[in-house]
Amino acid sequence: MPEVIFNGPAGRIEGRYHHNKTPNAPVALVLHPHPQFGGTMNNSVTLALFQTFLERGFSVMRFNFRGVGRSQGTFDSGIGELSDAASALDWLQAQNPDAGQCWIGGFSFGAWIAMQVLMRRPEIEGFISVAPQANMYDFSFLAPCPSSGLILNGGADQVAPQADVQKLVERLKTQKGITIEHLTIESANHFFEKQLNELVDTVGGYLDKRLAQAPEKG
């Protein structure tokens, strides 16, 4: 997978990028979990999301937030990481100016950052939010949620408990014209350690459905 280095607000950012040569191929950005708890772009869930987008014809990128791997800078409690993600999306779009769709995905801390990017970038048409920590992070900025997407969590997740995710989903579902699909893999923990294949199948099925509904863009 080609390595890319691009400039971010705190210095160089390290990423991995797969380019789809099909004209108007959709683009997707995938965000990893918390840097201070071992989160990197090579996290297994992050990799699974990346691969699922790749297999469906996306030009897709994952990257290390500031201070992780070869990315410069230091952890900034989500504020700087949001800027990193915005820079990554700028880079991705510059490589794909004719992209038919723009998506964002994130896992845990990355899901929180991804949803903030979603609020700031109206071109994002869909999202995949895996195990958002609605018990720990404030998602009240999603008022209203601008795009339809999938929220996926594990039924045995003690880091992002099911009850808190459900409250978030119920709040988002009240918004007109937006469809939030909420799916639970019952036996999965926060890291989906024994259910990665099920996660891939679930996310892939959702993407297949949304891509089939998308109008042709020429």
Report on the architecture of this protein.
With 218 residues, the protein is α/β, with parallel strands linked by helices. It has one domain (3-206): Rossmann fold. Helix content is 33%, strand content 22%. The chain is built from 5 helices and 8 strands, in the order E-E-E-H-E-H-E-H-E-E-H-E-H. Helix 4 (162-173) links the parallel strand 7 and strand 8. Helix 1 (44-55) runs parallel beside helix 5 (196-213) and helix 2 (79-95) packs across helix 3. The chain is globular and about 40 Å long. The chain starts with a strand and ends in a 5-residue tail after the last helix.
Mean of residue pLDDT values: 96
CATH architecture classification name: 3-Layer(aba) Sandwich
Radius of gyration: 16 Å
Distance between the termini: 29 Å
Count every helix, treating DSSP H or I runs of 4 or more residues as helices. 5
- Regions with pLDDT < 50 over 5+ consecutive residues? none
CATH top level class name: Alpha Beta
Helix/sheet category: alpha/beta
**SSE order, one letter for each helix or strand:** EEEHEHEHEEHEH
Q: What's the number of structural domains?
A: 1
Spatial order of the strands forming the largest sheet: 1-2-4-3-5-6-7-8
Could you name the CATH homologous superfamily? Alpha/Beta hydrolase fold, catalytic domain
Shape: globular
